[in-house]
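Per reviewer request, we include the raw input and output of the structure prediction for the construct analysed in the revised manuscript.
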Amino acid sequence: METLEYEWKQHKIDEKYERLVENSDLDINMFEKEINKLDQQITELMIHAEKTSTKLASHHLDEWSPKLIEAYQNKRHWKTQVTATSKMPYYMGLVESIEKFRHALENYHEAEKKYQDLSKKSDEVRTSFLKERAKDVAAEKGTEAEKEIKSLIETEKQRKINGRIKKVVKSRNIGGLNSILIPALTEYQHPYPKDFDHKNIKHIWNRIEFDNGEDIKNWERVTNQKLVQSMLLQWQRSHFTQANDTPFASEYWRQRLQEEDVQKAILSGSFPTMSDLPLEANEVIQEMRKDERVKTIPDHTTINDFKAFVNKIKETKSSSPSGRHYGHYKVLLRQDDKYLRVIHGILQMALNKSIILTRWKKTITTLLEKKNGTPFIHKFRAIHIVEGDLQFLAKFFYAYKMIHNAESHGLISDEQYGGRKQRMAQSVVLNKICYYNISHQTLTSCAFMDDDACACYDRIVTSLSSLECQRWGLSSRVANFTTKFIENQQYHVRSAYGVSDESYQFKTDSPTQGSGQGLSWSGPRWTNTGSCISDIMNKKNTGMMFQDPTDTIQIKKCSDFFVDDTATGVTENCINDGRSPLDHLQQDEQKHANLLYATGHMLALYKCLFYFFSSK
């Protein structure tokens, strides 16, 4: 910390920040240049301070105790003294320096022996420490010391057991991807064109797309470093451009949805029906009308908001392609507010002026195998790693403010169980069992379908979603900032060979879509889209109805959602035209599929199942 404090003063960071605040009315291009310059300098200082700080080894801390740490620090102290006194003859008398060196060496040997002795019995020392700690806990709670000692020791035992189980059951390839599996040449139809390349991403995509690769028997492993990284980048680009054939992903609508007049018209409900859009796309626009009760969320954050975020976030959480990670913020949290005040100030000014800092423009995509040990090119979970302070904005405005605002005004569909407090995935399953049992007991013919949207976070149409979020109170500034951020990203992939030098990015003729997993705004943005779809389905679909024998309790709904997994149903007591529940389910599901398409999404048909129960 001393290094950072010294460098902070030397580079006059506080003065530069105050000058930046005073000159906030500068030309936007000049201001952007200055704010990036200061932000980069702070990042370099933080990384430099970390590198020059003494790092304690951690291999000996398995059985941690204050005594062991104290012994280790004493050993390090005398080791440093031995090094220092060995250099004294250069500027001190030889006799005096030898005496000081011997004194330091004797103390070092004594400290080392004490540390080794404690290490050998670290289990006993740890247990003794836990017992002392238990007595303090008992005194605080007013409970029996023996009870607290037993509880702490049992917890310690379980922690060790769970750690061993996790290593065996949930082992992972720490080194990252070093190979990928693609369809072998024999998986393509004969005859091949003369220049056919089965490693071409377009050919691989077309071959896998038919049945998500389930029909492919032979796979070829690619291990060449450059080829692996190149193919992963090309595949990820194709993956994040899947939504580009949907109505609102066109360049025309991308620009129109960012126009202030269009946004106001849609949110007020005065936007006209567009003949060039599908029926469901027009219905989505109509559903985006903002409730008059909903007030716009202020787009200002405070340093206390930022400190609360830093305090809650786990230090081990992956962050920061630039090297400025959560550990730095955790350290600054315990220091003078001046450091975080400057960092937060830069963050807020960038938001106010819709500036995407240079540091924010690099996203590292970590690819996780969906099935460990089988790195199929199409079966990776893409996790975007972005800067920690950017995550603060995403979490604060979307996951906290917007979702809380929507919940308090009852804007989220009651059928959505994912991404909400006091809602569980088990509830959807229990609902389904109840639907089946009630239908069976009352001899009610019914039809149900379980379906899944394909890569829902990765197909969110950026400009459409940003406007959708405004109907839940998000300010236009934050919404447009989000759109600009996504469209300014350079995506790199991480593998066993490191982070790729090459990257892909947004292009007007082939824009990347999707909020991506790993960012705190992805879940809330999909919840918004899913709720819009659910509300339209409740107005247009046949749905299902369940009631008690006395007709005093009646439940009517269309479906249950858990994030992008949907269970849709139709019961015969909702049908008046004589058709079967299965016919109506097909109609309702087609409506669901069309609404998904209108918002940039698609059903993963290979994951969909339907059930039909006839009482006749």
